[in-house]
Amino acid sequence: MQFLCWFALLTAAIVAIGVGADVTYDGRSLIINGKRQILFSGEDLFMWPSLISKAKEGGIDVIQTYVFWNLHEPQPGQYDFSGRRDIVSFMKEIHAQGLYACLRIGPYIESEWTYGGLPYWLHDVPGVVFRSDNEPFKIHMQNFTTQIVNLMKSERLYASQGGPIILSQIENEYKNVEAAFHEKGPPYVLWAAQMAVGLQTGVPWVMCKQDDAPDPVINACNGMRCGETFAGPNSPNKPSIWTENWTSQYQVFGEDTYMRSAEDIAFHVALFIAAKNGSYVNYYMYHGGTNFDRTASEYVLTAYYDQAPLDEYGLIRQPKWGHLKELHAAIKLGSDPLLSGEFNTFSLGQLQQAYVFKGKSEKCAAFLVNNDSRKDVVVLFQNVSYELPPKSISILPDCKIVAFNTAKVSTQISTRSMEPSQKFNSPQKWEEFKEVIADFDETPLKANTLLDQMSTTKDASDYLWYAFRFQQDSSNAQSVLNVNSIGHVLHAFVNGVFVGSAHGSHESKNFALQNAVSLNKGMNNVSLLSVMVGLPDSGAYLERKVSGLRRVTIQSGGEVKDFTKYSWGYQVGLLGEKLQIYTDSGSSKLKWSTFGSSGHQPLKWYKTMFDAPPGSDPLALNLGSMGKGEAWVNGQSIGRYWVSFHTSKGSPSQTWYNVPRSFLKPTGNLLVLIEEEENGNPLGISIDTISITKVCGHVSNSHLPPVLSWVGQNYQSDKESKQHHGRRPKVQLRCPLQKNISKILFSSFGTPFGDCESYAVGSCHSSNSRAIVEKACLGKKTCTIPLSNQNFGGDPCPGIRKALLVDAQCT
Ligand SMILES: *[C@@H]1O[C@H](CO)[C@@H](O)[C@H](O)[C@H]1NC(C)=O
Ligand SMILES: *[C@@H]1O[C@H](CO)[C@@H](O)[C@H](O)[C@H]1NC(C)=O
Ligand SMILES: *[C@@H]1O[C@H](CO)[C@@H](O)[C@H](O)[C@H]1NC(C)=O
Ligand SMILES: *[C@@H]1O[C@H](CO)[C@@H](O)[C@H](O)[C@H]1NC(C)=O
Ligand SMILES: *[C@@H]1O[C@H](CO)[C@@H](O)[C@H](O)[C@H]1NC(C)=O
Ligand SMILES: *[C@@H]1O[C@H](CO)[C@@H](O)[C@H](O)[C@H]1NC(C)=O
Ligand SMILES: CC(=O)N[C@H]1CO[C@H](CO)[C@@H](O)[C@@H]1O
């Protein structure tokens, strides 16, 4: 019933707008309006109202977000807070839904965002050294931070003014690089803290991973296992805050998805609360979304944390979302003793530990931890036996009844499907435009050396042409072109003919291209297109990082000609980019050809029109037939795609690319792609709808609170156990919005084999299983089926622990 208190508190805060909430902290937690708080926070990059409400329903109290300097100040002194950049409206939406906000200003943010959020123009400020005790950097950092804080203040968005913002962050994981800055590091930390505090927001500041954060800035933990790794606040007066609990991991092209289970996340969150006095946990990410445009950093995928509790498309990912929701509720049931009780810990066995919080008036909450990753154990706690599955924590909000165990997932598992809605398989629908291969003579910029790609393009494009020409005395078919590059992809052309491509990876950025080429007698033109897949986002001295070609040689017969120091011509970007041919107006500036008229060759633009698929399901382009490039819908970039870079398992890291419905008109939408590779085939593209099509629940008798199933003298009747939070095991199914359960694919009460991915009837199976479940669920949006003999018309196998597995289709 903490939830009621919680909402009451917020209502009070909203009514009290103008008066302002007082946000302070002590060694236990943040204190808002004099009240201690345990807070669960969800990180997200630009969530829409429905996402905020799904987060709230999942037991999230705080929305934490970064501020992206390079989005908001694209040119020095020119600020942009329009459209997706409207951070004020975002804060107001959070407030309107009764949640708090944590604003991570940075302004260095890393976050797999291009250049770590710093605008590229900062690189060209004379004498600048990023993130150190360096005047030019500090001036710009202070200006931007002040700009954001003043904007928030002018809209009265700090909790101290009655707004939602209860915390702000300055810098980001600086400890990782501090040593590299030698004597310029520590004074910068001190300066950043004082500068931030001096802005007088009326709410606390945090520095994450900065164990020496200067007072009164709170040092916070980032990581996957803060319950084990966090050394704790650096002062007894500061609370234990976890700003980034990675719900999975960001993904790069060429790598497989990292799956972090709901059980593992729940274990570490419960441990942080129990063992580290944790009072604030933020999920990184709760919703990641999409790196539209060219905003992802080096090699980082366009989809960002699709494995988060709310997936890339904003759909609820189960069981992660539901399991964490139950965890939040269980922890909050014990808020009183947790926040004001006395703490004790004692051993329950070799690898088992109890963490007990005893409050006034005998209120008590306990966490029973089994750190044995293989064995199920039974422990005795206050004379009662509890069964603890391997690597799990049971939460007893009253020190008696288990409200939650981190390893027992009773939430349904949902399956997401992509269904083609429109195919683009007709050649008549497409037009194409062959990108012009840059030629030395035509290049606008010349230099007698290989230039760094970043300082040449200034991030205006991923593409930089490096061109040269040379005289060859004889024609020689045996020549070999050798290029060494550090960023990130290379396509090579000799005399206008494609000769080969090569690329590096997130792990190894150096790569070489080595291709046989045939040279003409006389003049030869070599054009090398170097392509970056995002700027770097981390490391010390980011401003010194360079990219692009490092060495170029041609071997002919026995002779090696080195062109590294030679007369080079440069062109930033492609012609199609310059003309913005992906926009309505730009696409009419040139003559498109019929599809297929220019044969197979890399570097082609493709264009088609399409109508928005009916309905409201999220949409994505299936680009599985393409190679590498970027795609635009009505002039808006939906990001880079790269499906030809396969993972070790032989599949693309990302096949589907999010197309928000807000980018679309009902009819006549313009789709344009630049395809860099020869084999990309737009005829295989489709626009797909994305939805949850299947839900499955699997619970067994072991989901009963252990006091019921294990200790004879403590056995309680069904009637009694119902009073204990209604926690009788049951399968609960829920189809997403606008969908009902249309078919029961499998149902077995007994001892079914397997799990929700593959299953079969076991030796014990109630013959009523299907009929009972169909009756309860068919045609409904949600249904609940209790796991009880009574419900299934009798016990199919007395004396045996039973389970119920139901798999259902949603349409
Ligand atoms: C910083 O902000 C101040 C006040 O807005 C302005 O006068 C100054 O030009 C800015 N400095 C830089 C380097 O942008
Ligand atoms: C948690 O708080 C208790 C009581 O304030 C203290 O004894 C204990 O050391 C703290 N634990 C950590 C990990 O900070
Ligand atoms: C659990 O065991 C692992 C590995 O043995 C150890 O690293 C970790 O610190 C332990 N955690 C707890 C909470 O005891
Ligand atoms: C546990 O049992 C012992 C012996 O029966 C008894 O003395 C003690 O009071 C009991 N403790 C609790 C917490 O019930
Ligand atoms: C090389 O480029 C020059 C200048 O555009 C052109 O005149 C010449 O024909 C090209 N040579 C070859 C072999 O393509
Ligand atoms: C789902 O069921 C409800 C009530 O049973 C019904 O009103 C609704 O039309 C159904 N929706 C679909 C999409 O079948
Ligand atoms: C992104 C990142 O730094 N992930 C780290 C998260 O924590 C795990 C385990 O502690 C590390 O292995 C990852 O590198």
The main sheet comes to: 8 strands, parallel, barrel
Structural class: alpha+beta
CATH topology-level fold name of the largest domain: TIM Barrel
Strand arrangement across the biggest beta sheet: 4-5-6-7-8-9-10-11
CATH-assigned homologous superfamily of the largest domain: Glycosidases
Distance between the termini: 34 Å
Mean pLDDT: 90
The CATH architecture category of the largest domain equals Alpha-Beta Barrel
- Principal-axis shape equals globular
CA-based gyration radius:
30 Å
Strand content: 25-35%
The parts where pLDDT drops under 50 for at least 5 residues are 1-19, 704-726
Number of helices in the DSSP assignment: 17
Count of extended strands: 44
CATH class of the largest domain: Alpha Beta
Give the distinct bound molecules.
Answer: 2-acetamido-2-deoxy-beta-D-glucopyranose
Keywords:
811 residues, alpha+beta, TIM Barrel, Jelly Rolls, 8-stranded parallel β-barrel, 6-stranded antiparallel sheet, 44 strands, binds 2-acetamido-2-deoxy-beta-D-glucopyranose
Overall description:
GO terms for molecular function: beta-galactosidase activity; carbohydrate binding. Helix 5 runs parallel beside helix 7 and helix 9 runs parallel beside helix 10 (320-333). With 811 residues, this protein is of the alpha+beta class. The protein has four domains: 25-333, TIM Barrel, CATH 3.20.20; 418-434 and 577-690, Jelly Rolls, CATH 2.60.120; 440-573, Jelly Rolls, CATH 2.60.120; 691-810, Rhamnose-binding lectin domain (RBL) (Jelly Rolls, Sandwich). The chain contains 17 helices and 44 strands. Bound molecules: 2-acetamido-2-deoxy-beta-D-glucopyranose (NAG) (7 copies). One 2-acetamido-2-deoxy-beta-D-glucopyranose (NAG) binds at residues 76-77, 139-140, 143.
